[in-house]
Amino acid sequence: MFMTKKSSNQPISYPIFTFRWLAIHGIAIPTVFFLGAITSMQFIQR
User: Fold this and answer.
1) 25 has binding-site annotation
2) Which residue ranges does the record assign to the Photosystem II cytochrome b559 N-terminal domain (predicted)?
């Protein structure tokens, strides 16, 4: 039942998900925003 990664008595690493979530969404959300903004600017040009 245990995965035995580092220590078998601890549960699955819960604090890493918060830092990983902030690291991924801190990069992904502005990236998607700028890609959408640059893509939309291509069609607005006269």
Assistant:
1) yes
2) 8-36
